[in-house]
Amino acid sequence: xxxxxxxxxxxxxxxxxxxxxxxxxxxxxxxxxxxxxxxxxxxxxxxxxxxxxxxxxxxxxxxxxxxxxxxxxxxxxxxxxxxxxxxxxxxxxxxxxxxxxxxxxxxxxxxxxxxxxxxxxxxxxxxxxxxxxxxxxxxxxxxxxxxxxxxxxxxxxxxxxxxxxxxxxxxxxxxxxxxxxxx
Length: 183
Known about the structure:
With about 180 residues, the chain is α/β, with parallel strands linked by helices. Helix content is about 30%, strand content about 15%. The protein is built from seven helices and seven strands; from the N terminus they run ββββαβαβαβαααα. Helix 6 (about 155-165) packs antiparallel against helix 7. The longest helix has 11 residues, at about 155-165. The mean pLDDT is about 80.
């Protein structure tokens, strides 16, 4: 990512690598090309791309214009801005004035939204994510309607269509062999 055209010359801090030891120094890049992999792919390393904007709301729009992130962070003491960020940004988790503490709080769900993942983990949230709620229907054999089974005569089709349309009057008419259109 760092060697890509338009990225290497945007490093403002760090950038040192030792490939044979798989080491990368913490690195900050500013205003790299939107199409570069560092702006398009998940980053699993100490790389921080910074996008400059005219006003903070433009930054919210930059976040909303992309797939939902696993986490989003805002650093400010401005309560209105904090609330605006929480309300306008969709992410797996949001932290205000911190970056990793929310992952350690067992009572907060942590997980992605959309492309950043599905479900959440921590405490009961893990249990619910990895549990399947099974729907079960019990009914007796009595009262079974011949209407449910083939062959589907014209009368059966008329009744079923009326029932599926949730029109009880049409269903009653159809049951007696009449179409509501013919009334």
